[in-house]
CDK5RAP1-like protein isoform X1
Amino acid sequence: MASLAPLMNQPHAAFRANLSLQRCRRLSLCSLLPPSSSFSFSCSRPFSSSATSRIFTVAPNLLFRCFVLSRFSPVSGGWSIFNAGNLRSSHHQFVRHATAAAAEIQVDQVPTSEKTSKGRVYHETYGCQMNINDMEIVLSIMKNAGYEEIVSDPENAELIFINTCAIRDNAEQKVWQRLNYFWFLKREWKSNVATGRSQSKHPPKIVVLGCMAERLKDKILDADKMVDVVCGPDAYRDLPRLLEAVDYGQKGINTLLSLEETYADISPVRIASNSVTAFVSIMRGCNNMCSFCIVPFTRGRERSRPVESIVREVGELWQQGVKEVMLLGQNVNSYNDASGVQDVVPGSNWQLSEGFSSMCKVKTMGLRFSDLLDQLSTEFPEMRFRYTSPHPKDFPDDLLFIMRERYNICKSIHLPAQTGSTSVLERMRRGYTREAYLDLVHKIRDIIPDVGISSDFICGFCGETEEEHADTLSLVKAVGYDMAYMFAYSMRERTHAHRNYVDDVPENIKQRRLMELIDVFRESTGQRYDLQVGTTQLILVEGPNKRAPETELIGKTDRGHRVSFVNVPLRHSFDDDGERNPIVGDFVEVYILKSTRASLFGEAKKRTRLSLFQQVSPASGDTIKV
């Protein structure tokens, strides 16, 4: 199989396959697809006898699953396909035929300088941070395929991507509205160019990505033919092939879910290239199967990237000037890198938060989330780390202790409650009670006293009573959140709730309960902000304050609170570089003067390093390393 190696191991690139047509041909370009896919290659277009080469695009990390051998017919002027299944009886015969076929293909990598741009790209993203990071992965794949130029207006693009969210109906409706406009640009291309509305070189191809693509599949593709390609979250490597398929009149659709795909080998093209913050996806999918949630059906089962690939990507970001990384995953703290495990560790050793349970048992335990945080915080001492979105069940004590001990792991925890009612939690299949959740909150604050806690809440879930809603309001008051995402329940097809429950809470009741929850939350979070007045906080400067861009800068505290301050020259606490104004990427010590109950305002004291920052506790006057 050594002679096949050049074909099977090439990175993202175009390859030139020189096919000799002077004798019997065997073409081994049959099934360049992931193991979970099925697609057979055939060529019905006649080749002239003088034709000596064709150009094929080979996507990376695709496996030759079977070799469909074909023979050129001088009578028909085409390629006849015969069944490769006949070769299955003899493995050695299969390898011999395949190797001989590969030997006839001389593979040369086409230099990047020879590639011509295939078109300009416009992209929009809806939904969570994972979708933003996925869009960066897609841009990297498309850049390798020849789509290098990104434009800020859809009217100037030959290729339009819209990355979608399927969590709630409202998000899907926004996508349909945008698709109608993109379809107009495509359908009325000639008149749009004539009137100056569009500057694209040909009618744009429209590509729907993400969770909505997986959930609705053919419905999107068949909707008045407004969309050319539908591609699910695990099939982005296949985008170049799907776009080529459209050119030949085929449907461009691949929404297959994978048990292995993590895109660990792809370096994302950062959407905000000058930003000092970045997203890094460390795992994909979710095994929790909460009854209200569509994510396991659109994102698939959990799988984690190897620690080494994450460390490598973070190192690249550090070299680019990034100072803060948000680690991403649908269930980020269930991270489990078992790639280096030789001896299987029984899943019973997988420690959950006390009082919590899980429907899915871990078969092989590798490096956990605390191990990853340990390595990242040690190797990058001047970089700050956050993470989202976790599940409350995966907060073992070792994770909490390492968050307390490492100054560069932000003291901010997203702890989705969804509801404050034990009976509703049971219907949601969350795996814990109200009491267990409150016990976890108390443990977190005992171990990490100055931690900021945020949450998610759903109002009006199936069968929710006024008493159950009151339990949620009282939970918000009892915990005191720094931030929360709150929504009225939107039933999703294919979920456990859709199959087993009735969405019986009227919409007007849902909205009334949502407003009541928001009012209680605002009072709670306002108190958390007020407590920061009189403290000194470390701020990573992210840019000008949009409300006063000429005079003020803005950034976030360790807990995630937004802080603005006047931009004045400052000395550094350690470096002898004189006074200068802070710039994006600087860490600045800011004394908090005022709270608006939704943001903070302070006085900048000095520039500093993350590892040198000292915080003075207003309660005790003690100096605390954070």
Observations:
- The first strand starts at residue 13 and ends at 19.
- Residues 372 and 388 are 14 Å apart (CA to CA).
- The chain has 17 helices and 30 strands.
